[in-house]
Every structure is written in C-alpha cells, then in structure tokens.
Prior knowledge:
Blueprint: H1 2-23, H2 36-52, H3 58-76, H4 82-112, H5 117-148
Amino acid sequence: xxxxxxxxxxxxxxxxxxxxxxxxxxxxxxxxxxxxxxxxxxxxxxxxxxxxxxxxxxxxxxxxxxxxxxxxxxxxxxxxxxxxxxxxxxxxxxxxxxxxxxxxxxxxxxxxxxxxxxxxxxxxxxxxxxxxxxxxxxxxxxxxxxxxx
Length: 149
C-alpha cells in the first residue's frame, strides 16, 4: 500500500504545484482588490481546470479518495510501523476535506467571475492559503511514506 499512498500523494503535490503557479500571483497584494490582470489570470485558469476540463477534472477527486483509501488499508493491514499510516491520515484527511469543502467550490465560483472584484479577490486569497496548507500536508505524507514506510 505504501507505493499507492506515495503515488497518490505525489500526484496531488504535482497538481497543487500547478495551482500554486497561478495562486502565487496574489502574494504581493496583501490587501484590497487584486489587479484585474491577476484576477483574470487566476479566474481563467480555474474556469479551465474546474469546469472546462470535464471529465478529466474528476481524476483529482478520485486520486484524493484513492489516496485516503490506501492509507486506511495500510492502517488496517497492520503496516509494521503503524504510526506511518496514522500520521499520513492525519495529514491527508484535513487537506482532502478542505479541498472538497472550500477550495474546489471557491475555485469554481472564481472561474465564473460572477462576484465583485472584492469577492473575487477574497476567493483568490482563500484558495491560495488553502493550497499552501494542502501542498505542505501532502508533502508531509510523501516524506512519511517514503522516509519511513
């Protein structure tokens, strides 16, 4: 199971890296409305990857669920170092829940550009913070799985 968990976590880190290449545009703008060029760039990206990429956009959700399932199997099957699965689950589960509950719906909404510039700016900043948390969590899963698994 270790290989499945590591592969899933690695895939998710790669996806998050691509998202962060767009999200990072908000970093220099700590407050206020983001410049239109920044909003347009990030919103266009999320419109493509959350809506226009159907059905491929479902792959990420499948990998998230598959990675969680592989971690649970690893724990249930009694991995020699049980703590590896428990720590992996403690890192991965909050990231997956955050992505499903807040990040993906926010990205879909940002992609529509229906909100005011203030609302879009808040969404873009929230997505950026969420993605930073998720990439750190999934990188942690990789370290635990590859280093101790």
